[in-house]
């Protein structure tokens, strides 16, 4: 399987504080890679650096064989690397339709109508609320909207940062079913999650960050089978 995203020796931080201290990570075509670790270990910093939001201090980011190190986030989006950030960050005063259409602003604009119809097929509840202000929807519906907006950009790799955060148990099940469906349709996904058990059941490979470094990596089955990992790093 060919590598779609390659991160090598990535170092970055804020001010004089180094957060990532030489991270290596790979996501192949059509696979789910799970990124795990406690709060404050650098997971969101990694996402934002890969996506061109944070500066790269050292190391390399390659996507589909092209060097994206230090490129502007607009160039990253145009390449097909799309992030759905933690906290949804929808536009609450805009309608569901307007939020979705904004997802195709930089990429996917020629197929906007077709992709909008696909989003409403994937997320029927959004169709029921298509002209409703997004801020009046439930947390689960807003998460659907955030993912739908990301999919409107026709990503080749989708970064999902805590997609199940704050959702009801039923919505969590629906969210992971959706993630599995997207992978089976050929989409590569980097999944950052606190829900360790379901993440490892859904993904193919995983990485565990600790203090800005990759402490463990392997297949999800290998990570699940490690007693030390389960006790010390995954809280299982």
Give me the secondary-structure topology:
Layout: E1 3-14, E2 17-28, E3 32-36, H1 43-50, E4 58-63, E5 66-67, H2 73-79, E6 81-84, H3 96-102, H4 112-122, H5 124-128, H6 139-151, E7 157-161, H7 169-184, E8 188-192, H8 196-202, E9 205-210, E10 213-219, H9 220-225, H10 227-232
Parallel strand pairs: 3-8, 3-9, 6-7, 7-8
Antiparallel strand pairs: 1-2, 1-4, 4-5, 9-10
Helix pairs in contact: 3-6
Structural description of this entry:
This protein has 236 residues and is an alpha/beta fold. The chain folds into two domains: 3-80 and 156-232, 3-Layer(aba) Sandwich (Rossmann fold); 93-147, no CATH class. The protein contains ten helices and ten strands. The strands form two sheets. The protein has a six-stranded mixed beta sheet, with helices on both faces. The chain has a four-stranded antiparallel beta sheet with strand order 2-1-4-5, with helices on one face. Strand 4 and strand 5 form a beta hairpin.
